[in-house]
């Protein structure tokens, strides 16, 4: 059963070594993510599942201990999903975490997470709404007390310099998603316009619909901790508890 969830954005720029001189611009987002992870820890889960967007080849489960690397983003940093074998800096020859789950692992490591076993789940465009909701229900049933760390961004079309350029539909879409995540409105998340989310490059679409499936009938309430659009991309931090 789902007992808590934290929703966090997933840009590698959250890692200060990647952001460089611009790192202070996301200090408020990092602080909100830390607060959100505190809500997860307080829920005393039996299992934590980190859900994040992934390209088609990266969809699927990632066991505890799977490494991720930010070397492709200009920082020689290796993270690991929870506990696991391997030295810091060693990624081995196996499957690596997609960037969204690597950011999740970095946030958990920064917070000193050690409260429950962890697993990762990459989802993306191959996961339609019904499949996401069904997956969420399955995830919520994996233990008596399940918590989710849900990584994903809102639209990438808020300004002229945004990755997807300016789209006037982006701000209303982000506002509705922020409201739904902040109110734990599973119906709004289940029924969001998937095609519009794709056009607006909202990477959080699939992870948020997994959350909707997991949270259905869980009776959780939500709180919005942070909402902004630095670099023209919508970032939301919220908690369900």
Please describe the topology of this protein:
Blueprint: E1 2-8, H1 16-19, H2 27-42, E2 47-53, E3 60-62, E4 67-69, E5 78-80, H3 99-111, E6 118-123, H4 129-140, E7 146-151, H5 170-183, H6 186-190, H7 194-199, H8 205-215, E8 222-228, E9 235-240
Helix pairs in contact: 2-3, 4-8
Describe this structure in words.
With about 240 residues, the protein is α/β, with parallel strands linked by helices. The chain has a single domain (about 1-240), classed as LigB-like (Protocatechuate 4,5-dioxygenase, Chain B), CATH 3.40.830.10. About 35% of the residues lie in helices and about 20% in strands. A seven-stranded mixed sheet has the order 3-6-2-7-1-9-8, with helices on both faces. A two-stranded antiparallel ribbon has the order 4-5. Helix 2 packs across helix 3. The longest helix is centred in the N-terminal third of the chain and has 16 residues, at about 25-40. The chain is globular. It starts with a strand and ends with a strand. The relative contact order is 0.22.
């Amino acid at each position: 059963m789902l007992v808590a969830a934290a929703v966090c954005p997933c840009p590698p720029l959250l890692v200060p070594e990647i952001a460089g001189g611009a790192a202070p611009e996301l200090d408020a987002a990092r602080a909100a993510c830390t607060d959100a992870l505190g809500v997860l820890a307080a829920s005393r889960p039996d299992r934590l599942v980190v859900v994040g967007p992934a390209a088609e080849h990266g969809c699927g489960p990632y066991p505890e201990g799977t490494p991720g690397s930010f070397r492709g983003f200009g920082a020689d940093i290796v993270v690991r999903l929870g506990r696991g074998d391997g030295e810091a800096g060693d990624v081995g020859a196996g499957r690596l975490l997609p960037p969204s789950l690597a950011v999740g692992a970095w946030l958990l490591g920064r917070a000193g997470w050690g409260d429950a076993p962890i697993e990762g789940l990459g989802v993306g465009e191959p996961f339609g709404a019904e499949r996401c909701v069904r997956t969420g229900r399955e995830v919520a049933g994996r233990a008596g007390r399940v918590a989710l760390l849900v990584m994903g961004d809102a639209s990438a079309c808020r300004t002229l310099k945004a990755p997807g350029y300016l789209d006037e539909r982006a701000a209303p879409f982000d506002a509705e998603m922020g409201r739904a995540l902040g109110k734990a409105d599973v119906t709004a998340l289940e029924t969001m316009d998937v095609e519009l989310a794709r056009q607006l490059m909202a990477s959080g679409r699939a992870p948020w619909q997994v959350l909707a499936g997991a949270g259905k009938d869980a009776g959780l309430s939500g709180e919005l901790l942070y909402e902004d659009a630095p670099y023209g991309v919508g970032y939301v931090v919220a908690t369900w508890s």
